[in-house]
Write a structure and sequence with these properties.
Elements (H helix, E strand, L loop, with lengths): L3 H23 L4 E3 L28 H27 L9 H38 L7 E3 L1 H23 L28
Antiparallel strand pairs: 1-2
Helix pairs in contact: 1-2, 1-4, 2-3, 3-4
């Protein structure tokens, strides 16, 4: 079974990844307007920015609707994985059996890794669409990747790292032998119990 220190690090990485995924989903900065060509950007001294408000989720593009749904599922899965980890971690006393703690920790690690993949896939898909449209000469309005794309990648990597560490440090005992091993010598075959006449 993994040590308590490794599990605490995994909890910290998982919480950071979960917060990053929530911010990635909540903040509308997936695509930002690109100023290319002869456009000159002038910043206002007040620091105000103008956002376009969407009254409905159905107004968003299909890739952004799908990405948001996948990230929400990822947030729910990661929250569940962290709760399961708290129940089966070495630093808690919710479960006493060491073998059961290892299995619970392994399940939490797999949940965090799947949650990380569910963040990286839609973020990478949206980034691909943004780069494709940016390089397409037929698209007049050029958009660049916003900060949520990069935040989503970082959150996904943190979640996969936390889940991978948990899976590597959760060793489940296999078999019912209790950890005993039998060794045989290669020089002489084992003696037979039969007496030959």
């Amino acid at each position: 079974m993994g040590s308590s220190g490794v599990q605490i690090v995994c909890v910290a990485l998982g919480l950071l990844g979960l917060v990053g995924a929530i911010v990635c989903c909540a903040v509308p900065r997936w695509k930002v307007t690109s100023f290319t060509g002869n456009n000159i950007v002038t910043a206002q001294s007040t620091g105000q920015q103008q956002c376009k408000k969407y009254d409905s989720l159905l107004v968003l593009a299909a890739d952004l609707q799908t990405a948001r749904a996948m990230i929400i599922i990822s947030c729910m899965l990661c929250s569940l994985g962290l709760l399961v980890l708290f129940a089966g971690a070495d630093f808690t006393t919710c479960v006493e059996d060491e073998d059961t703690k290892a299995k619970i920790s392994l399940v939490a690690g797999v949940g965090l890794m799947v949650g990380g993949l569910l963040v990286i896939i839609p973020v990478s898909w949206s980034a691909h669409n943004i780069v494709r449209d940016f390089n397409d000469p037929r698209v007049m309005r050029k958009l660049e990747m916003g900060m949520c794309i990069f935040l989503g990648w970082a959150a996904g990597v943190l979640l996969i790292l936390a889940g991978g560490l948990l899976c590597c440090c959760s060793r489940v005992n296999k078999g019912g032998s209790g950890g005993t091993a039998k060794y045989y010598s290669n020089s002489a075959p084992p003696a037979s119990n039969k007496n030959y006449v």
